[in-house]
Amino acid sequence: MRGAKVFWGALAAGLAMVAGCAAPEAEVPRGPVAQVRAGPSAGGAAEVSPSAPITAEVVRGRFDLVTLMGSDGSAVTGQIAPDGRSWQATEPLAYDTSYTWSGQAIGSDGKLVPVGGAFSTVAPKRTTGATVSPTDGQQVGIAMPISVKFDEPVQDKAAVQRALSVETSVPVEGAWAWLADDEAHWRPREYWPAGTQVQVHARLFGAHFGGGVYGEGDLRTEFEIGRAQIVKADVDSHQLVVERDGEQVASYPASYGLASDPGRHTGNGTYVVMARVPLQLMTNPKYGYFDLPKKWAVRISNHGEFIHENQANAAALGSYNNSHGCINLSAANAKEYYDSALIGDPVEVTGSGTDMEPGYAMYDWLLSWEEWTAKSAV
């Protein structure tokens, strides 16, 4: 028994020696801790909008160098953030171009990680343009809508509308509406506050108009709303009243459209001053006159309505209505009003036997707010 104890004790000691002499487990090398994401490049992304945000980011590290090179041989201008963790393109890309990422990031462990990947931008079937008004630096009246007119009909109105924005110096509620397939307007719910500064951005480059058609370039305009001038045109009063900044500044004897002939009514509705010309040739074959010259003409509708001088109709001014739809004033009063008018001033006609039908140019204020917002594409 005593000998057995010695045997098992020796065996245990031998096993301990064997265990103690075993080789240590090999240490597996760790990879770099930094992770770089450069997009869009997953799987060689294609059909990317050239106006899409183009960025690269690194986690647990910082960029040492980032380059985005186009297949046309040009490098995209960009900027690494102060903390080194991101890079942002600072210029738009080009249509129908392949782009390749290169560069490197340094991880928090000091190891280098390459920047790589590639993508391509969309190849348009064709590109198209647009124009915007009011023009840059213009001063306009408080009813002036913003108009974006496209060179061809827009199929994807929602995509294009999302590319349009309006910024104002004071809060103004407003909305976009499509008045035609090739024309979108923005108007405030109520008249603009006097003195408002307005910026319009139409970021159309990269926007898909539908059917493979894309915007050829961005548009921008900045304009100012002038003083608050409103014309109150009550046809039954035979007067044209001008209010400026809440105060009446003039009341002119006037003659409106002949009440007994619906074709000659000055229809009810809120019109907008569209143009001013010192001499307008008036033509209406239905009523037998052609190239009739009238001075100090302020156009308020493409239906044919103007505020203008008609000294030959002096007997009717302030007494009865006999015009063909225009608002007649004396020469002196027409000149005074003409000089005070801004494009975009509202002219509110009331008391007529008919309403002006929406559909003629600048009919924005003939629609209720509910009717207006129903024309939005988003």
Summarize the model shown.
The longest helix has 19 residues, at 2-20. The chain is 11% helix and 41% strand. The N and C termini lie far apart (97 Å).
Fold topology:
Elements: H1 2-20, E1 35-39, E2 45-48, E3 55-59, E4 61-70, E5 78-80, E6 86-89, E7 98-107, E8 112-114, E9 118-121, E10 126-128, E11 130-133, E12 139-140, E13 146-150, H2 157-162, E14 164-168, E15 174-180, E16 183-188, E17 197-202, E18 208-210, E19 213-215, E20 219-225, E21 229-234, E22 239-244, E23 247-253, E24 269-272, E25 275-284, E26 289-299, E27 306-309, E28 327-329, H3 331-340, E29 346-350, H4 369-373
The residue-averaged pLDDT reads 92
CATH architecture of the largest domain: Beta Barrel
Task: Identify the overall geometry.
Answer: elongated
Can you tell me the CATH superfamily of the largest domain? L,D-transpeptidase catalytic domain-like
Distance between the termini: 97 Å
Domain L,D-TPase catalytic: 229-350
Protein name: Ig-like domain-containing protein
Active site: 308, 326
Signal peptide: 1-22
